Amino acid sequence: MGGHVHRALEGDDQVRITHVVVPSGHVEATRARLNGRAAVAADIDDMEEPVDFALECAGHEAVAQTVPRLLARGVDVIIASVGALSQEGLAESLEAAALRGGAQLTLVPGAVAGIDALAAARQQGLQSVEYTGRKSPAGWRGTPAENALDLDALSVATPFFEGSAREAAALYPKNANVAAMVGLAGIGLDRTLVTLVADPRATHNNHRIVARGEFGELDVRTAGATLPDNPKTSMLAALSIVRAVRNRVAGIVI
Questions:
Q1: Where is the Aspartate dehydrogenase domain (predicted)?
Q2: Which residue is catalytic, options 4, 6, 60, 207?
């Protein structure tokens, strides 16, 4: 995802990517790939100049370890790995760091539509929120789904997880960032009901949100193409980050 976002923003005349931070074992290869187009470091302490804001595309550990340090320094941060906030107390510690540094943390909607409406409906009270994630068996490889199902032998759509958004995001961190986003935008991680499905006939990553409350009813479906080199990640998730970055410098924000 980081590579996709970098390529999308590289030619933007209003946004300049000055630094890329990667694990120490990837520094040299990343430097060679970028060929001087951005400074590459293994830690934010190694960055050569101040930055206006930072973008996280590195996973849950980066959200817990690096993002609080940036916020405390007064650097606004946009995060992709929203599922990290399923960790007990992390959202509160990130908020405290942001308030300390006078910074702001932005969570992007990612691969799913309807988050704006869900967050708006929350202002008047929500009764229930349900999220269903449906992907091909390949999209669930390398996850605990392999222990629940024989992914190679599936012939029909099969649910393999039912639980809270907090549980889903913790067990499936590379797949269920959407579940965490739905929970945080609506009635909370522990009250949001999540169902995950492996479907051999699915050609896209499919997401459905059903919410009810005083506002009425919301039923939103999204079928997103995956990134070419990562079937676990929807292309719309990467594009959501690109939009969030461009909104920071746009004259009109949608």
A1: 157-242
A2: 207
H helices of 103-234, where?
Answer: 115-122, 145-148, 165-171, 177-185
Q: How many CB atoms lie within 10 A of CB 59?
A: 16
Task: Determine the pLDDT at residue 53.
Answer: 93
Residue 228: the pLDDT is: 81
Cβ-count burial 36-51 (b if 16+ within 10 Å, e if not)? eebbbbeebeebeeeb
Q: Where do the domains of the chain lie?
A: 1-107, 115-230
Instruction: Tell me whether strands 226-227 and 216-224 are parallel, antiparallel or unpaired.
Output: unpaired
Instruction: For residue 219, count CB atoms less than 10 angstroms from its CB and return exposed for 0-12, middle for 13-18, buried for 19 or more.
Output: exposed
Catalytic, 207? Answer: yes
3-state secondary structure of 127: strand
State yes or no: 35 annotated in a binding site.
no
State residue 233's pLDDT score: 76
Closest CA to 167 of 199, 196, 138: 196
Query: Cα separation of 90 and 30, whole Å?
Result: 29
For the whole prediction, is pTM greater than 0.85?
A: yes
Residues contacting 16, CB < 8 A, separation 6+: none
- Please list the ranges in the chain whose pLDDT falls under 70: 231-232
Cα 110 to the center of its chain, rounded Å: 5
CATH superfamily of domain region 1-107 = NAD(P)-binding Rossmann-like Domain (3.40.50.720)
| 13, 174, 178, 226 from 185: Cα distances, Å | 32, 19, 10, 23
177 annotated as belonging to a binding site for a ligand: yes
